[in-house]
Amino acid sequence: MSNVKKSIFIFLLMLGVILAGCSSASNAGDEGKSEEEPLSKVKDQEQQENENVEEADQKTAVQYYYTANEGGSISKINAADNSIVSTIEVEGSVHNVQVSPDGNMIGATVVPSMGGHGGDDVGHGEEMEMSAKALFYSIESDELIQEVEVGNHPAHIVFTEDGKYAAVTNNEDNNVTVIDMVSFNVVNTVETGKGPHGFRISADSTKAYIANMGEDTVSVVNLETMKEEKQIKVGTAPVTTGVTSDGKTLVATLNGENALAVVDLATDKVEKIPVGTGPAQVYIDVNDQYAYVANQGTEEAPSNSVTVIDLAAKKATAEIETGKGSHGVVASPDNKRVYVTNMFEDTVSIIDKEQNKVIDTIKVRGVPNGISITN
């Protein structure tokens, strides 16, 4: 073979290698591209899922508070602008309402018609004795989920923090009904002191502290053994209780003494702090710093204030003017607002916690009593 032919042959051979390499590179590029397409789809899917989560979060972020109206309804109110979203009509007198820990439902205590509480002045209307129900509604749709028959004159309803139970105090029967929240069956009825009314359950869901209005005690009910462990003597006509998140301090409004009882649960030692006239409900804020006491008075001589108690200092730090017959009280989870029902003028006062003053007042249906807010 001549040198010229050899040169041409080598050139063609090298050209073939180069073209083959380009072809391989091109195929590699195609393979990369074919892998990018499903990755792109995955990213789009993830983006869509994130948008769906954000949308769900936005829906969840809508915060509502509810008032139990003794005239026969429950008001659902948007906490962002204090506008009434809906009114749930109820056959009977609604005394108390509570939001479940998961935020999916509200529980309410209802008697067939207007009635007081076993001889106390804190209720509204004539005394009646009849069995009644706890009603459970969907927060999303306002639809009735379940009704459960309880005892005579159900007063307050409270969910355990773990969502396992809802408990209802039966003011005329001197006991508390415990409802299983999976089956909605009554699993136990526990005896208490006389005239059980308002109460709270410890953060660990093990104990209910029930104010016995007909005497001067608070019943401590063990929700594991389903028995009353003991009674703590606190003072005259306790209406409602509160307990700090660490389970160390109990508070109870003393309607007959115009005071708040503060109890050291390690020793059961009681200290009393003067508040306004005829205190009804009390609520401890999320930081366990302040207790807010709604002073109701009586229908003939209504009070119109909320007393702010510094729990560490054990003294009143402010008296906030509200509306006539302040009864139910709750603080917002963000610790910015306090909401108070005013029974004798059918309103709710919205308090700014930092300013310690009412910044808005809204009208609701007849005789708002209990109040609760979503998390």
| Main beta sheet | 4 strands, antiparallel
User: How do the SSEs run, as a string of H and E?
Assistant: HEEEEEEEEEEEEEEEEEEEEEEEEEEEE
Kindly report the CATH topology of the largest domain: Methylamine Dehydrogenase, Chain H
N-end to C-end Cα span: 92 Å
**What helical percentage do the residues reach?**
10-25%
Shape: globular
**CATH homologous superfamily descriptor of the largest domain:** YVTN repeat-like/Quinoprotein amine dehydrogenase
Number of domains: 2
Q: Widest sheet: strand order?
A: 3-2-1-28
- Tally of strands: 28
What is the subunit organization of this protein? Answer: single chain
CATH architecture descriptor name of the largest domain: 7 Propeller
How much is the radius of gyration in Å? 31 Å
Overall pLDDT level: 86
Query: What class, by secondary structure content?
Result: alpha+beta
Describe the protein's architecture and organization:
The chain has 375 residues and is an alpha+beta fold. The chain has two domains: 1-61; 67-373, YVTN repeat-like/Quinoprotein amine dehydrogenase (Methylamine Dehydrogenase, Chain H). 16% of the residues lie in helices and 49% in strands. The protein is built from one helix and 28 strands. It has one helix at residues 3-61; strands spanning 64-69, 73-78, 83-89, 93-99, 105-111, 131-138, 144-152, 154-159, 165-170, 175-180, 186-191, 196-201, 207-212, 217-222, 227-233, 238-243, 249-254, 259-264, 269-274, 279-284, 290-297, 302-310, 315-321, 326-331, 337-342, 347-352, 357-363, 368-373. The strands form seven sheets. It has a four-stranded antiparallel sheet, with no helix packed on it. It has a four-stranded antiparallel sheet with strand order 4-5-6-7, with no helix packed on it. A four-stranded antiparallel sheet has the order 8-9-10-11, with no helix packed on it. A hairpin with a 5-residue loop joins strand 12 and strand 13 (207-212). The radius of gyration is 31 Å and the shape is globular. The N and C termini lie far apart (92 Å).
